[in-house]
Amino acid sequence: MPFTVLVALSLPVAVTLASLAGCGGGGEQSTITGSPTTPGSTRGTISIRWPVRAETRLIPVASNSVKITITNGAGFSASQVIARPATSAAFENLPPGTLTVNAEAYPDASAGASPAQASGVQTITAVADEPFAINLTMDSTIDRLSLTRSAEAVTAGESATFAVTAQNAAGDLVLTGATTWQWSSSAADVATLAADGANATVSTLTAGTTDIRVTETESGKTATLGLTVSPAPSPSPSASPTPNPVITTPSGLQYQDIVIGTGRAPVLGKRVAVYYVGTFKDGTVFDSRQQAPPFIFTIGVGQVIKGWDEGVAGMKEGGKRKLFVPSELAYGATGSQGGTVPPNTPIDFEVELLEIEP
Length: 358
Prior knowledge:
Strand content: 35-45%
Shape: elongated
CATH architecture of the largest domain: Sandwich
CATH superfamily of the largest domain: Immunoglobulins
CATH topology of the largest domain: Immunoglobulin-like
Distance between the termini: 23 Å
Number of strands: 24
């Protein structure tokens, strides 16, 4: 079964034949062969670079264009937009003297969607009839992260949602890639989390406190918010329901009904919509879908692991069930695609059957 666990950013620019140290400044200037088309002017080649911490990419993961502008103090201005995967631009008939080269990266291919996700600037001295080439390094425009939570305190067993956005120095939202976020819980024994890009669902286990931390990897910016988990209330002994028994099927699957549904039962070949949480035996969450949109699959045709096809087939709409799935009914000796679940690993799920296709 597929596991699904996807915001706002800025860049660096460079000119060839030169190497720039640092973000958005410094660098070497180098002459290149050939002559400007107009005597007394110069020609420049500007190449884009991204900081060393992500040197395998030339621009942020969510950027698709870079706008390069060259100006001087006398009112001269020239600009070009280069779209991914281009990384450099050549300018003809530039005036000699002090020139300022500015580069900004944008999410769209035409550099029209503000604000910029990355920027860089470099000042050079151009000499008449002597072409030059420079590397301009851009850096992320993200100045800070804003982290919010659905609740400051919850009861053990409840969940809370966290969401993060990135802003530049002016407070504008900066677009980021879904893969540039890293989440963590400081107390995994108190709460675990399932991340989905700029969002995370925190599942609480026991009373205590934990700090939820998120880092935007391209800018290096970090934000942290605490979550307080209070003890779950003890039910009155007279009101305590007798838990449903754990049932073992001939295949080796075990299940325990938490809530017995009152709606329809699944039929082979029909699609069903579910919410679920998948955990390892130590309680670590490896996958979760607990809010819209639900996970949808066709029952009994092999779209999910065998333990799901068998375990969900015996439920009714509105029901919630724990599935204790041995490895041979899960991902077996090969493990899951992508390595989320290692080989020969038994896993557990809590599944809520929301709806069955008419």
